[in-house]
Design goal:
This protein is of the alpha/beta class and 257 residues long. 24% of the residues lie in helices and 28% in strands. It contains 8 helices and 15 strands. α1 packs across α3. The chain starts with 8 loop residues before the first strand and ends with a strand. The N terminus is likely disordered.
């Protein structure tokens, strides 16, 4: 992987197996971590951060309480300096969620509520907007924090496990959903990436964060839909960690394999 960051925004889709984690490094070297894979990925996450030279996380986002998204966050909090942490207002009574809250408390951090309409103060040159959750839902996937990250003329949409209900709410909110790079919702499950949402986002590239799983992710139907709409697809299970770096105009994509 190239480490020539310079004036680039780097969005790294870490290979955490069947789970999700994105590490963002801004042109000025600020960091954002969105999710951190499952509980068994804690050491792997610490190794990744060391590999990418990250010792502080300026903004951390736990998109929603599912273990395969927040499992590794507690270890990251325990071992690194954290600026701000955002999570949607939805609880979970799992051990995973409890240990995350425990780590947050031990560090004296205050969780900020992830919701549509927020602009995150991260890097002067990069715009980070939260597009979801728009509505309150008792379904944790549909409470997923969704981020749109724009740098110059380039943009990324990171969707967590947002499903059709949340996609509809985002479309109805009138926000500009267009993005060149789409993190495919819910690991390529049929419950996400509805045709109307995909057409509004109109991505050139899509990343599916997926590993060995019994759910049949990514679903063939979703792969066909992406293909029909001319989207170039990258997958962690086939290519390992995927980095998409932008200089504000062009993208440079590197894969582990």
């Amino acid at each position: 992987m190239s480490s020539s960051s310079g004036n680039k925004l780097r969005v790294i889709f870490l290979d955490v197996g069947q789970g999700a984690s994105q590490l963002l490094i801004s042109p000025s070297g600020r960091t954002m971590l969105v999710d951190a894979g499952n509980n068994n990925m804690e050491q792997q996450m610490l190794d990744y951060l060391r590999q990418f030279g990250v010792d502080r996380i300026d903004i951390m986002v736990g998109t929603h309480p599912d273990a395969d998204h927040i499992g590794g966050l507690d270890a990251v909090i325990d071992h690194h300096e954290i600026g701000a942490i955002y999570m949607p207002k939805i609880q979970s009574n799992t051990k995973t969620f409890e240990s995350l809250l425990q780590s947050i408390r031990s560090k004296g951090l205050k969780v900020k509520s992830a919701r549509s309409g927020l602009s995150l103060d991260w890097d002067d040159e990069v715009k980070v907007e939260m597009l979801a959750p728009v509505e309150i839902s008792d379904d944790s996937n549909n409470m997923s924090a969704v981020l749109k990250v724009s740098y110059g003329g380039t943009s990324f949409l990171l969707t967590g496990d947002a499903e059709r209900e949340s996609e509809k709410a985002m479309m109805a909110s009138g926000k500009d959903l267009r993005a060149d790079v789409l993190l495919v919702g819910h690991h390529g499950s049929k419950s996400s990436t509805s045709l109307s949402f995909l057409q509004q986002v109109s991505p050139k590239f899509a990343v599916i964060q997926v590993g060995d799983n019994s759910y049949g992710h990514p679903k063939q139907e979703i792969l066909n839909r992406l293909n029909k709409n001319g989207v170039e697809v990258y997958r962690n299970d086939l290519q390992g960690t995927i980095e998409i770096a932008s200089d504000g105009q062009n993208y440079e994509i590197t894969t582990e394999r």
